[in-house]
Amino acid sequence: MFRRQSRLRREFLLSKSQKTRFEKTIAKKELDKASFHLENLKSKYNQTHKNFDVDLGDDEYKYGNACNPKIMITTSHNPSARLKMFVKELRLIFPNAQRMNRGKNDLRQLVKVCCSNDVTDIIIVHEHRGIPDNIVISHLPNGPTAFFNISSVVMRHDVPFIGKMSEQSPHLIFHNFKTKIGERAVNILKHLFPTPKGDSKRVITFANHDDFISLRHHLYNYKNKELELIEIGPRFQLKLYQIKLGILDEFQASDTEWVLRPYLNTSIKNRVLSLENGWDQEGP
After folding, report:
1. What DSSP state is assigned to residue 191?
2. Is the model's pTM score more than 0.90?
3. Into how many domains does the chain fold?
């Protein structure tokens, strides 16, 4: 009797283990088959979309129009008086922007504070001997982060016949951005501004020439059926030199989406943001 029960128990355990091994084998084959099918689909998609990484990056702004941007502007440590003045004027360009004193806060603390206050973008301005020379625009919470050189800065009080600053949301004009990197730069810059109303008289122009982006800030009005432009400043030039996929506190670990390599170009006439001379630079 006991021998029969022991034999039946062993047979039951053996059949159960064989059934378990069989089910695991079938599940593994199905998983391998599904992963192989997924790899085939991905390879076909990559073949039809050469700029796969750049196109995916645009999804970071998929819901950018759902709410107005909220921007925090700050500086490097120990800013000069001229840099503080420039940041004050820069804040007037972007609606819903606030200026924050950097103090001793590091990048990780800045990003943490901005994310906890629903900030959509953080802008950091750097200087060299009192002259603004670099600006970093980081989209929160997942990136991207764009790095620009800044030059030819003219403050508002240095602009002749300056007009009064308007609080309206500006209309945006982007000129001569024709490459994939140019479109990416436009996507980063335009999401810093809310959608303007139709009666807004304020306009901001980003004009690309030789990969230098000139920013001009005007009010327009019709006087005796003639268009009149009044510059309200400030004015400066930007030059894009790097785009990272992550945010500021992940700078070292983030992948580089694109970086300017001027010393590898075969001609100084090559352009990055426009299709002049039929050349388009893609990828790092």
Report:
1. T
2. no
3. 2
